Amino acid sequence: MYSDFLFNFYKITEENGLEEGAQILTRMATNKPLFVLDSGVMADDIWKRVQRFRKCLELIEDEKIQKSLNEMIYFSAGIMPDYETTENRFDAVEKLESTIKEFKASDGDFGHRLVAIGPGGIDHDWESGDYAGREHDYFDAQTIHDERDLFALQLTLAKKLNMPFILHSRRGFSETADVLKAIKWNRGVVHGFAYNQSELEFFLNLGWYISFCGTVTYSGKKNFSDMSELVSYVPKDRLIIESDSPYYAPVPLKSVGNEPCYINYIYEYVASKRGMPRHKLSEAVEKNIQKLFDL
User: Fold this and answer.
1) In angstroms, rounded to a whole number, what is the distance separating the alpha carbons of residues 111 and 105?
2) In 73-215, where do the E strands start and end?
3) Residue 106: its pLDDT value, please?
4) What is the side-by-side order of every strand in the sheet holding 209-212?
5) Which of 9, 11, 92, 123 could hold 170 in an S-S bridge, CB 3.0 to 4.6 Å?
6) How far apart are CA 246 and CA 214, in angstroms?
């Protein structure tokens, strides 16, 4: 049972179509996960994400698979930074709050499965998956301020609604740390962790869970050389694993598009680095997910 803390199903179907989306869901179900979480990037995109999931579900003929998928799927709602949302951050977060409340009140089967706010946070390269840093002209002082403000507003909303937060932080540790210290809401998980040990200790000391995705298997590669050591450093009761599909396919599939069932490779890698059986790692991750999301 390989739970997937975070994947991006709408993006997967945009790239592959509904039929392939249904097949991907079917393959994902073979892992028999306790929990899979679909995330988005906009304040109100949960409506179209749930609708996309339902459309793909209808294409699956096996009723047992349909039922298992309905039971394992959960959702988050959050805002990733871009030009428009940082400039209009107060309106965006107000829309996020109203969307969460409306969805929980009105969406029947899935209303109670909206369990977290996010991903949201600091990302100092909006246009590149390589995270080249602040070399881009658009990251002036005002942009950095507005991005940090958007993160603070979302984290404050999570605190207000008593919901876990999914933290996205890339090449912006100092700004991330400033917001966490100011808001003092540390119920959540750092997804796709990509920092070093001292920064890891900062998050752990505040109480955050740490999630690794396919990049953890890129040992020795630029920006990921320390990952193989950090997977052993994270306490077992703080460790979570995600596919983050369709991004960052794990080794040995790095050259292909990522999908949720490839999370098996991440579990295998992390288990080997920690010197434990994969099923024990899976049990630990599921226990952490249950505690974090009050399942």
Assistant:
1) 6
2) 73-77, 114-123, 165-170, 188-190, 209-212
3) 84
4) 4-7, 36-38, 73-77, 114-123, 165-170, 188-190, 209-212, 239-241
5) 123
6) 10
